[in-house]
Amino acid sequence: MNESEDNEMQIIITGGGGFLGQKLARALLQSTQPFTELLLVDIQQPQAPMADPRVRCLQADLTEAGVAESLITERTAVVYHLAAIVSSHAEQDFDLGWKVNLDTTRTLTNDPASVSSSPARWRSTAAPCPPWWTTALR
Q: Which of 10, 78, 96, 132 could bridge 37 with an S-S bond, Cβ 3.0-4.6 Å?
């Protein structure tokens, strides 16, 4: 790996097209946090909250087999998992709420070594957090 590859750092925001995902993306882009790519992932095509060459937007269904796992690479440093089915929508379609809120979270939070070789730090709205997670709640 050469020096430029060593400095590549990806941040992923699932639910990147939603209210919280967009606020977080804007805050990261305006911060001094060093990263080379901010990947916004959502079930509907997310939009970049501001013009920035580091932003990549991806429409993807994280409940499809292999999709969530495919996001994490050796470049992934942080994952903010904000994708969710909330409130009455989850109550009206319990199976979908279960699939998105539990199964996708479980897929993304499997032991990172089994997902990929990424040293990713995990951030999620889910609680409690496994001991290997890094979270703003601790």
A: 10
Closest C-alpha to 36, from 93, 85, 77: 77
| Cα-based torsion angle of the residue sequence 74, 45, 123, 28 in order, rounded to the nearest 10 degrees | 90
| Residues 56 and 31 sit within 8 Å (Cβ to Cβ) | no
What 3-state class would DSSP assign to 120? coil
Query: Quick one: CA dihedral 62, 22, 112, 130, positive or negative?
Result: negative
Q: Which two tokens stand for residue 41?
A: 């992932």
Length of the chain: 138
What is the torsional sign of CA 19, 21, 26, 31?
positive
Q: How far, CA to CA in Å, does 126 sit from each of 13, 27, 50, 123, 131?
A: 14, 21, 27, 9, 13
